[in-house]
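Write out this protein's structure.
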Amino acid sequence: MNFSSLNDRSSSNSSNSSNSSNSSKSLTSLGSLSSLKDQELLNQTKSLVAQERQLLTQVLHHLREVERRKLFSDLGYPSLFEYAVQELKYSEGQAGRRIQAMRLLKELPELEAKIESGALSLSNICQAQSFFREKEKGRRLNPEIGAQLQIQNRVEEALAQPPGAPKISTQEKLEVLQSLENCSAREGQKRLLQLEPALVRPKERERVIAENLTQVSFLVPEELKQKLEEVRSLLGHKAVNLGWAELIGLMAELSLESLRIKKFGKKGAKEMEGVQQMRAGEAKLAQASQAERVRVKEVKLGKAKTKKIPCGGAPAEVSVGAPTPTLELARGAEAKLEKNRLRKRAPRAVSRVVKREVWLRDQGRCKKCGIRRRLEWDHIHPVALGGSSEVENLRLLCRPCNQREAVKAFGVEKILNSVRARVSTL
């Protein structure tokens, strides 16, 4: 007797029975709905929608706590948005609207009742939050007044408001939100446009076209366009026929050179450029044939030319590129001097040499989530607990991942208290 066939039959029978039970349940629920009277069906639907809104506010509170603890960093996500899209399976639009609403709800708890009642939709809250952000930028950067006057205005605003106070008053925000109640998204956009026509504009967007191509769309103010045209003019004939993307790429190369010197010094910038060229060469070799890679490797290992270098009066054969005793002594002396400098400095201070080594080792990326933005040098063993500022105890982390590590080491309340104390000194 074939027992496997019996097992297959029994499993198929059980699966069929489970499927039939599920389908019978769905049919029963459909049957129960079809048997409802019109008013009962309407009442139940309204009740379910009210429950859905209550669940929405709970989701917003949970997202706020996840962001407060920076828990998304433990899962390898660089931001709450990536966590909501990748882990919670929201679409990008759904994730963005919920995060915007959560942050505005954090500032204005009065909105919770508006959300639960349905008076304010997530779309209008999201539009209002973008409106407030743009308006604050407009207050900080007004092209009609000089830079010195702008700085003076900022100082006066900071002195007039308590630490951490919003740039736009709570009353102003509530009035704007009140004008958006019971409006569709399109009606809300029209009302915001009436309030500040210059502020309601399309957002910057990124869309991946291919593996190595991303389409970026954004609005360019006339002042910035004039600056770009001036750069094109200063670059001379080689920039005449460049497109915008090529022009920005050329500007990025020029900026990288000066920024590397500013961050790591001239010597460090040259070393970084050399390392990057070496890595680019290695990437090309990886694409070459196996025979070519073997040939190059053999040349590197021992088939290079040698030259005679006098050492203590006697000739000695040393491979080209190999470190000489004098060079080794110089490096050792430099490392010793660097350690002595670090001992005299504050324990948290990180020298340019150490920063450069950590940056090259971590390839300019966050060690946890891999992004390149908002990078900071993090002490693996905290300085407050006796950690040093040497290469082995440092790594690159983005700000959210760095904050999460601090929360894990010291607790969320202590970190929040230290941030409040720092803000109060500004």
